[in-house]
Structures are given as structure tokens and as C-alpha cells.
Design goal:
Number of helices: 2
CATH architecture of the largest domain: 7 Propeller
CATH class of the largest domain: Mainly Beta
Strand content: 35-45%
CATH topology of the largest domain: Methylamine Dehydrogenase, Chain H
Radius of gyration: 22 Å
CATH superfamily of the largest domain: YVTN repeat-like/Quinoprotein amine dehydrogenase
Distance between the termini: 23 Å
Helix content: under 10%
Length: about 475
């Protein structure tokens, strides 16, 4: 059950908004919609049109259970296929399962050319594959991109990296407008790139020098006027690019220093959350520019700062590697600029209504923001007229999308846990999956009461997939399919 709190009002920009049109409601039809990548159509996490389970019980309503190799990527569904990735030793795996039975159809491997460092909760198969309805496209931080046909025949491969990301790569590729898009945010040489899905060759590539390592999957935004946009949350900045060319269109500064979440959109607004350790509003600090610090601290006048030269009150208490971006043992102007920005950025949930504006929209087009109970890893869910977030500790917050008013905030008392999987919605229900595989099913209308909470496994990091009235959940050891009534 939910332990509720009194509603809290978020900061909002005082002007009248039109009716919020949830773009994901376009999926509501009698025809099933394939779930072709991370969180389904446009990473929205919504699938309508068929009844979905009121609870997930492996003993009562599981259609099948299939053992899996390690990995935390989510299923991609199309036709009669489920595409997934995993890893075993030195092999990076892409495989296909039969959607009706869970039976393995084929498995293909490429050898790992390297083993990049990852966070303890990350792994070489974190990025979710995507499919165009026949072919599958997978990204591995230890290799790059690879594509297979429906029969498992390799179509092409595109080596990328090595990457400079101390926690490993995790952004999932997406398909849009005949292009395969991949975001590679890292501490050096971040970029977003579009490749030709027929051969893996570059269509366009845009450098992202203003961001460092991150893990966000991009989404699409189709405003009433202007070109289709690619929305990419990143460290310190939310950025929009023209999908056709990769041209940077607009951005919002002040985003926290490490982003794991995908943005969600409606007809005219972009919503995102961002959380990083030590970036709560109450812990903000001001540090002078590099030139000022170097004047008083650069004892040997080499234009760099060693760990010992940095004034005690400005020293980083965590890993030196996290702030020494080029790993040369010193802080230069670039390192310090990002370190300084880290202390001025804030964890928050926010909404941006860009209209046809271009350039820096930080002071002009942020509708509202909210700096409490911000999710650590999971992306927001825009469903049934509310924006839902889930924070570690089982704290559910539901916002009115147009204003940021908190409609409800409470704790899932039967699922107080960490949350890495993102919430998904369908059939008037919201599904929340915790790290220890506690699955809470909530009604999508206030007061968002839980219908059931069950435990289906030992560890869950992958976001569930939904299609044709079936929910697919990957645990640490298997993939399970659950059907509604």
C-alpha cells in the first residue's frame, strides 16, 4: 500500500498552458504495437490496446520462463521475435527468442576486443537493442554497433571506441527517419551520431564538447512547427538536435552532472529528470574560475593543478578519476570547468516548452522544476494525464504535467527498495519494478493505489517490455512473460 504525503507545489512559470496531449496515447488502438527498443515507441514506456495483468505471479500467470546469460538490457519485440543482448566471458551476444514460447531461435557472438571499466551495477550488455521489424541493431561499449538479419546472419559491424567512461556505456540506440542513432557521452570526445541502418556508415556526427560521461537514451520530439528534433539529456545540459542533420537547435543548462534517464514528451513539452551524487540543491557551492585558483595554488606554475595544490576547501572527496577527465594526474582548465559546474548543477525534474525557439532556453522556456525526490536511474512515465517518477526508497511522485503541481507523493510500503528499471504503463495501470524484483501494479488514477505487489525473482535492472497484452520482464537469470486476463 501507499504511505502518502501532503501534496507539495513545484515552482512553475506563471502563464496559461493548453491541454496536455500525451503523445504516447497514440499507441492506444485495437492493433498491437511492437515494442522495438528501450521502453517501446519513443522510449515512452506505454502500450495500450490489450488487457494487462493486475499482478505478476510466476506461479499463476507466467506464460513461460527462459534462462538467460548475464545482461541488463531490455527486450525488443517485433512480430514473432524477441531480440535481446547478453555477455558470456569474452563474447558479446545478440539473440532471438520466439515470442509465443520463449524458445531460443538463434544466438550470435562477437569477440570482445577490450574490457572497458564499468560500475559494479553496469555490464557489457546494458544497452537495449532496437529493431526495424526485421533486422536487429545492438550496441556494446566494448565493441560498438553490430546488425543481424532476422535469421541471425550478420549484416554489418561498426567498431566504435574505446570510450572514456569510468562507469561504462549504457545508452541504447534508436531508429528514426531511416537512421540509426547512438549517443556516446564520455569524459573525452562525446558525440551523437546517425548511421545508415543498411551498412553502418556515418550519415552525420555531432560533437558534444559541453558534456561528459552519461547514459541517457535519446527520444524524438515533433513540435507543431519546425523540424523533428532529437532530444538528448546529458551532463549539465539538455540538448535538442535536428534529426535530419544533427544541427544543435536549443539547450537548457543547469542539468545535474550525471544523467541516466531518457526524456519523455507530449505535443509541445519535454520532460526529464536528472540525479547525481552530491547534487542536491542544499549542497551547492561556488568555486572560482580556473585562472583565479591557479594564481594562488599553482605552486610550480605549470598551468595545471595537482591534487595537493588544490585548496583544501575545494578538494574533491570522491574518486580523483571522476574529475581528472583526461586521466593525466592533474586538473587543467577543462577539468576544473566541469568540476566547477558539477557544484552548481542541481538534481531536479523539469519541463521545457521550447516552441520554435533556438539557442539557450534556460531562463526563458523552463515551465517548472522540482528538486526533491528525484529518481536516481529510472526515467519518468507520462501516462493518463500524469508524470510519474519513482525514487529509491519506493517514493512515487506524480505531477500535473502542465504546471508541475504534485498530485501525489507517497512511499510504496511493500516495495521499499532501489529502482533501476523505469516505470511502464498500459491498460490503466502503472508497473514499477524494484532492484530485488518487487513488482508493484498501481491504478493510473489518483490516488494511485497499488493493486498488487509481488516478488518475481532475485534481481531486476532491465525495464519491462509490453506488446499484444503480454509483459516481458528480465531478471538476473531469466526472461519471463506474463499475460493479462
Amino acid at each position: 500500500m501507499l504511505q502518502s504525503r501532503r501534496p507539495i507545489t513545484a515552482m512553475s512559470v506563471p502563464f496559461r498552458l493548453g491541454i496536455v496531449l500525451v503523445a504516447t496515447a497514440l499507441a492506444a488502438s485495437s492493433e498491437p504495437v511492437d515494442w522495438s527498443g528501450f521502453r517501446g515507441p519513443n522510449a515512452a514506456g506505454v502500450a495500450e490496446g490489450r488487457p494487462l495483468p493486475d499482478k505478476l505471479d510466476p506461479q499463476a500467470n507466467a506464460l513461460w520462463r527462459t534462462p538467460l546469460p548475464p545482461g541488463s538490457s531490455s527486450p525488443a519485440l517485433t512480430g514473432d521475435r524477441i531480440y535481446m543482448t547478453a555477455y558470456e566471458g569474452e563474447q558479446l551476444l545478440t539473440f532471438a527468442l520466439d515470442r509465443e514460447t520463449g524458445r531460443a531461435l538463434w544466438k550470435r557472438a562477437i569477440e570482445r576486443p577490450r574490457q572497458e571499466q564499468t560500475h559494479a551495477l553496469n555490464n557489457p550488455a546494458s544497452a537495449t537493442p532496437t529493431t526495424d521489424g526485421e533486422n536487429v541493431f545492438a550496441f556494446f561499449g566494448d565493441f560498438g554497433l553490430v546488425s543481424y538479419g532476422p535469421d541471425g546472419e550478420e549484416r554489418w559491424r561498426r567498431p566504435l571506441g574505446p570510450f572514456h567512461n569510468l562507469h561504462g556505456m549504457a545508452s541504447s540506440p534508436i531508429l528514426a527517419d531511416g537512421k540509426l542513432i547512438v549517443v556516446c557521452d564520455q569524459d573525452l570526445d562525446s558525440f551523437v551520431m546517425a548511421v545508415d541502418p543498411d551498412n553502418g556508415e556515418t550519415v552525420w556526427k555531432t560533437e558534444r564538447p559541453e558534456v561528459v560521461h552519461g547514459f541517457a537514451t535519446p527520444t524524438l520530439f515533433e513540435p507543431r512547427e519546425g523540424p523533428v528534433q532529437l532530444i538528448v539529456p546529458g551532463s549539465y545540459q539538455l540538448t535538442s538536435y535536428e534529426l535530419s542533420s544533427g544541427k544543435k537547435l536549443w539547450w537548457v543548462r543547469g542539468i545535474t552532472w550525471q544523467i541516466k534517464t531518457a526524456a519523455v514528451v507530449d505535443a509541445d513539452t519535454v520532460y526529464m529528470t536528472g540525479w547525481a551524487p552530491g547534487a542536491d540543491a542544499a549542497t551547492r557551492k561556488y568555486f572560482p574560475p580556473f585562472e583565479e585558483v591557479a594564481k594562488i595554488a599553482d605552486a610550480n606554475h605549470d598551468g595545471k593543478l595537482s591534487p595537493e595544490e588544490i585548496p583544501v576547501e575545494m578538494r574533491h572527496t570522491g574518486s580523483w578519476r571522476a574529475i581528472d577527465l583526461d586521466q593525466d594526474g592533474f586538473m587543467n582548465n577543462r577539468d576544473w570547468s566541469f568540476y566547477r559546474a558539477r557544484w552548481s548543477s542541481v538534481n531536479r525534474t523539469l519541463a521545457v516548452k521550447p516552441g520554435s525557439a533556438r539557442g539557450d532556453l534556460t531562463e526563458t522556456h523552463v515551465l517548472w522544476d522540482y528538486d526533491r525526490s528525484v529518481p536516481v536511474v529510472s526515467s519518468p512515465l507520462l501516462y493518463h494525464g500524469a508524470l510519474h517518477t519513482i525514487k529509491d526508497g519506493g517514493i512515487l511522485t506524480s505531477f500535473e504535467p502542465a504546471t508541475g503541481k504534485v498530485l501525489f507523493q507517497g512511499r510504496l510500503r511493500d516495495a521499499i527498495d532501489k529502482y533501476y528499471a523505469s516505470p511502464v504503463g498500459g491498460d490503466g495501470k502503472v508497473y514499477l519494478v524494484s532492484e530485488t524484483c518487487k513488482v508493484s501494479v498501481l491504478r493510473a488514477e489518483a490516488p494511485f493505489e497499488p493493486m498488487a505487489t509481488t516478488t518475481i525473482g532475485e534481481a531486476c535492472y532491465a525495464t519491462p517490455a509490453i506488446a499484444d497484452g503480454v509483459m516481458y520482464v528480465r531478471t538476473g537469470k531469466e526472461l519471463m512473460a506474463f499475460r493479462g486476463e
